[in-house]
Amino acid sequence: MEHFPVLYEEALSALNIRPDGVYIDCTFGRGGHSRGILQKLGPDGRLLALDRDLSAIHSQLAKELSQDKRFCLRHASFSKLSEIVADELPGQGVNGILMDFGVSSPQLDEAERGFSFLRDGPLDMRMDRCSGMSAAEWLQQVDERELVRVLFDYGEERFARKIAKAIMKARGEAPITSTLQLARLIEEAVPMKEKGKHPATRSFQAIRIEINQELEEIRQVLTQSVDVLAPGGRLVVIAFHSLEDRIVKRFIRQESGRKYNPGRLPVMEKDIQKGALKKIGKAIRASREEIEKNPRSRSAVMRVAEKI
Q: What is the spatial distance between Cα 188 and Cα 200, in angstroms, rounded to a whole number?
């Protein structure tokens, strides 16, 4: 069955694809967006895709697309955007950059990845299993205050302190090594259950964000995208929760319009600089029809900007 990512048609339209253009898919995932971009490119077009998950790099679609000379796929975090563009596309202006944040369906579906609180598996949660600490390793060494901060800031979990105390107590008796072990522990620690939402939802999100440094990755790639894009190039970003979208919204606002150093008064004309981007349209959300077909699209928000 053919897979189409969330806001598929809207994202491809927003990129304003030129047949001879150069484009970057910062989050290859299951390859749906990359395949769609290649279908719109002519023989002189180029597409560079990135993903830090080796499962995506070694997928069947990745192997098929890699037969296309216009396509290049690199195993890398998107915070390495500038470095990889300098390596793969030296001297070329980029006409569009697409970013589709969040966890892909295969990552959630594979129990051994440790992302899901509904399937039992090793407590890993790393998008790149070649580097960094697993969630189990992190939980074993993090102090209580830092754990509370992560649960509250990244999961917006109001019972962060109760959950942190329960984790500290449990790990003192035995290491927390499996997803269901952690999920049950959180479920027991939460005094009030939210209707229609598993008690571990927010905590698993928070720990995943911390393990993969997701928000810092987003900040870095957005900043680099401005330098990489050619004038008139499009930046298209799809976020899936408020923390991601807030960063994207603020970045586009910051880079749009006129900026100055508020510490210098009076404000002189020479101190005022034009931003590097202009916002294109309003935030775009999935249609009712798409949400019915794919409930995950309910939380998706797409924002578009263009390099001035």
A: 10
Give the 3-state DSSP-derived string for the chain, with helices as H, strands as E and coil as C.
Answer: CCCCCCCHHHHHHHHCCCCCCEEEECCCCCCHHHHHHHHHCCCCCEEEEEECCHHHHCCHHHHHHCCCCCEEEEECCHHHHHHHHHHHCCCCCEEEEEEECCCCHHHHHCHHHCCCCCCCCECCCCCCCCCCCCHHHHHHHCCHHHHHHHHHHHHCCCCHHHHHHHHHHHHHHCCCCEHHHHHHHHHHHCCCCCCCCCCCHHHHHHHHHHHHCHHHHHHHHHHHHHHHEEEEEEEEEEECCHHHHHHHHHHHHHHECEECCCCCCCCCHHHCEECCEEECCCCEECCHHHHHHCHHHHHCEEEEEEEC
| Reported pTM | 0.91
Q: What would the two tokens of residue 185 be?
A: 């522990």
Q: What is the pLDDT of residues 148-175, one digit of tens each?
A: 999 999 999 999 999 999 999 999 999 9
Catalogue all structural domains in the chain, each as residue range(s) with its CATH number. 8-100+214-307 (3.40.50.150), 116-212 (1.10.150.170)
Q: Determine the angle formed by the axes of helices 160-173 and 179-189, rounding to 10 degrees.
A: 130
Cis peptide before 266, with omega less than 30 degrees from 0? yes
C-alpha to C-alpha distance for 3 and 183, rounded to whole angstroms = 30
User: Are 47 and 38 in contact, with CB atoms under 8 Å apart?
Assistant: yes
